[in-house]
Structures are given as structure tokens and as C-alpha cells.
Amino acid sequence: MTSSTSLSLRFSPPPHTVLPSKPRRSLVVSAQTAPPAVETDRLEPRVELRDGFFILKEKFRKGINPQEKVKIESEPMKLFMENGIEELAKKSMEEIDSEKLTKDDIDVRLKWLGLFHRRKHQYGKFMMRLKLPNGVTTSAQTRYLASVIRKYGEDGCADVTTRQNWQIRGVVLPDVPEILKGLASVGLTSLQSGMDNVRNPVGNPIAGIDPDEIVDTRPYTNLLSHFITANSRGNPDFSNLPRKWNVCVVGSHDLYEHPHINDLAYMPANKDGRFGFNLLVGGFFSAKRCEEAIPLDAWVPADDVLPLCGAVLEAFRDLGTRGNRQKTRMMWLIDELGIEGFRAEVEKRMPSGKLERESSEDLVNKQWERRDYFGVHPQKQEGLSYIGLHCPVGRLQADDMDELARLADTYGSGELRLTVEQNIIIPNVETSKTQALLQEPFLKNRFSPEPSILMKGLVACTGSQFCGQAIIETKLRALKVTEEVERLVAVPKPVRMHWTGCPNTCGQVQVADIGFMGCLTRGENGKAVEGADVYVGGRIGSDSHVGEIYKKGVPVTDLAPLVAEILVKEFGAVPRVREENED
């Protein structure tokens, strides 16, 4: 079993990293430093190791949520680590639904294997979420995933997620054991990617090829993923968290990694001639609360990325509350203990028992203008380029994936990169071949290297087509409304528009320039219709902040003119009629 107390790795500092001439301030204002009064017994770990798995102690089980009861009743990781999935996959859905234990297996516990039953809209079908650290994948992996979804016909498709990851749809339970073997054969896993686990580690999508990168994030995100899953064998040390947990490693001035919405963000910083990371903690979105990450007032050398991650996870696992699911993300624990109290719990779980204070020498340039990765860009490797392609709202079919794999093999090195904006990058293309690649028919249609200015920043969650929690359809509607808006106004610069089908905000609407959160509202005749709460003013980058509600309960049929109005009022757009008259 992997433990944070025994892991330390040697990393060399990036060769191009230089100490800044004068100290820079932290990315965000420091949180409270005086911890609230906390009873000593509150710091007693709430879980204990029993038969190789962490389980909630009897004395802390009063008032726990239903998901915790499901975990206590049967250990979810046994479905993978003890091959429980093999027997479960042999049962019919009727047999499974006839018993509470197996019904909970398919509706809850299989999420530890990355399998999400679509009971409401696609009974008997599953979405499978993978682990794809840093969004780096290969043509072989992409072809394999295409082969899986192709057999499911119209139900089979794939999505690029807002965590640089693949999700595939249409999977049926009898196929799962073979799919898991197939994933392993191409170096993929879906393990520990759902429910109360660590989600896909995010990094710079152009890591290792970016001429302006601070540090190559790929080694760190790969190690984090292997550490958390024990090299895809399953790691019970971190599989019974109070709630889901997100991590990213920042390697770009552009902050492509969105550190402020992660539970733990590694921010590159030097200290006394050593390269390492300052730490932000607690960022999250939920239906009831959204918070930006705050400084832990801590710095770790690059060698201690894994021990620090383990220490934070152990503190959260041991001390986090397990009652109301809306109040079990890590920031609620930080609120309860105070940032210094939480920091002390992390520090005592470090192998050395010590945690250095934050460095003032952070390496992110606050004045940096975020770069557009669409189209052709030179890599740091002479003679090579990368090409950013638009993937409309992240949705792909099997043929699309096969074609991307072919292009990666023909023009690049057989590698593809996924981005948190649900787009795709082909790296390592010989510059002499870029024009030939740009002439490929595949790039002339949906997957354009030059998308329109509003399509560039369009993001959408799964929506009601597949997700039982979504209130409205999102993906097709996002495209349709954007097309309508483009006919109404001309926009001078990119505007990021995000859609989410419900208050769980998987589409991250609060950090969008304009965000749409699905709801039911009243139409002209007073009947309930699909609508959206509209947010405006979210920002990403060094001056990140959460957007505010602009208008609630707008029927979806009324969104295009409202968005056009917002674009003119807030973003310098010009009405098309006036633009044509001036011409």
C-alpha cells in the first residue's frame, strides 16, 4: 500500500527557470491565520485501517450521508482489487435490481471503477471516466476507445471533459471486464476516477513543448496519478475520502490549469535557489457554494510533491465530515480548523513533520496575456509545431477519434493532448508538414484550427441527453445559441461562454465570462419550460474571480438576444445591422 510518509523523489529544477529580481506577491489574498478554537478530540482521525481498507469508525457514524452508509456496507474497491466486477458483470439487470447490495453496486460503488450508471435516461448503460494525467494520450489509446464506443451505435460517443480527460458512453455491464483489460493493454485506467476519489490531475496542455513554460508538468501529474492509484492497482489509502478532490500542477504563465478551482494547486516558485511549489488549497464548485482556492502559506521542493499530496489527502480523509454532502468538500474542513489549523494537520503528516512557509519568489507572471492555442504554433523543439483544434463542446464519435489518431500518426508523433476547454492539440508536427495537415478535410469541418471567435471559448457539460441530474440539454443548445448570437453581433475579442445543465456546475459557469446554469422557469403561457440562470464576469488567470448572477430564470428561447445585449454592453460587441450599415 502506498503511503505519503515514504515517498520522496528527486527532481532537477527546470533549466530555464530564473530567480525573479524582486519578490512577487502571492496569487490571492492570504486567508485567516488565527485558527478557531478546536477541541482536541476533533482532531482524532475518523477512519481506521481495517483488513487493508480505511473505514469510518463506529463512534463517528451518527448522521452520516447515504453514500457513506453504502461504503460501510461493502467496500467499493473490492469490485476491482478482489475482482468483484467479474461476478457482477455476469448478472442480469433484473437480478441486480432485485437486491439492494448489487443495486448499490451498479449505482454507487462502480463509480470507484469510473463507471456511472445512467439509470434515469439510459437504463443499463454506463458512462466510463478514465484517468488521463495532463490530458496526454496516444493514437493507440484513442483507437481503442473508438473501438469500444463504436459497437454501441447511437449510444456510443466520447466527451473531452473540463479536466483534460476522456469519458466514453454507451458501455454495458457484461462488457466491463474485457474493457478494463483492454484499457490496461494500452496503458489506460478508469480506476478511482469517480465519487469520493481524486479526479484527473490537470497540467499545462502544451507541457514540454511550450517555449514559454515555467516547468514541464507532465512528470508531476503522471506521478500524482500513479501515486493515487498505486500504479493502477488500486490504492485504499486514498479511496475513502469524504468527497471528491481535484488537483493540478501549474506550469504556464497562462494558468491553463485553472488552479483557483482545485482542492490542491501546485504553483511554481523558487526559494533560496531551490525550485518548488507554493500551495493553494480548497477551491471548489458545488450546488450550494463556490470558493476559490486560498494560500496554505506553504512551499515544498519539487522532490516533495507526492508526500505533500499524501499529507493533504490524509488530513482530509482523517478529519473531514461525512454528513450533508453539500458540506463535505475540503474547504469546509479548512473553515472549521482555520487555515493554520489545517496547515498544522498537513505538516504533522509530512515525512519530516515539517512544512516550509510560502515563498515570495513565485514564478507566474501576473501581467501575462493568456495565449490562444488554436492553429499552428512553434514548439521549443526546433523544426516542430503544435496545432490546436476546436472540438465543438467536447463531443466526438468513433470515426472522429479514429481520424484524430490517424492525423497524430501521419503528421505528429502519435500523441494527442486534451484541454480543460474540451479541445484537442496535435503536438510534434514537423513544421514543413503543417500546411499539408491544415488541408486535411477533417480540419475543414467541425474540428477547425480557426474556430469563430465565440466558438473558441464555448464549454458545455453533458446535459440531459445522458446525465440524470441535468435539468436542460446543453451541448447542442450551446452550439445553437452561439450560432444565433454570432448572427446578431460582431465581437472584437474571445468571450468564454460555459453551459451547465444543473447547479452541480460541471460546466464551471462561475469562471466563464458568460455562464448558463440550467433551470426550469415559466414561459409566456405560464407553463414550465427549460431555462437558464445567466452569470456574467467570471475570470481565470492571476486576477481570477467568480462571476455574479446577471439574470435568473431566462427561457432558453430568449437567451440569444439577451447574450447579444450582454456582449454589446459588457464586451464591446457591435450589432450586425449597424456593422453592415457602416460598411
Low-confidence stretches: 1-6, 16-33, 579-583
* Alpha carbon gap, first and last residue: 69 Å
The biggest beta sheet is recorded as:
5 strands, antiparallel
Shape: globular
Class by helix and strand content?
A: alpha+beta
Q: Could you tell me the mean pLDDT?
A: 91
CATH architecture descriptor of the domain at 74-187 and 382-451? Alpha-Beta Complex
Helix content: 25-40%
Biggest sheet: strand arrangement? 3-4-7-6-17
CATH topology-level name of the domain at 74-187 and 382-451 = Sulfite Reductase Hemoprotein, domain 2
Q: What multimeric state do the chains show?
A: single chain
Over the alpha carbons, how many angstroms does the gyration radius reach? 24 Å
Strand content: 15-25%
- Annotation, overall tally of beta strands: 26
CATH top level of the domain at 74-187 and 382-451 is Alpha Beta
Determine the number of helices (DSSP H or I, runs of at least 4 residues): 16
Plain-language structure description:
The chain has 583 residues and is an alpha+beta fold. It is built from 16 helices and 26 strands. Strand 15 (375-378) and strand 16 form a beta hairpin. Helix 9 (305-319) crosses helix 11. The chain starts with 46 loop residues before the first strand and ends with a helix. Residues 1-6, 16-33 and 579-583 have low confidence and may be disordered.
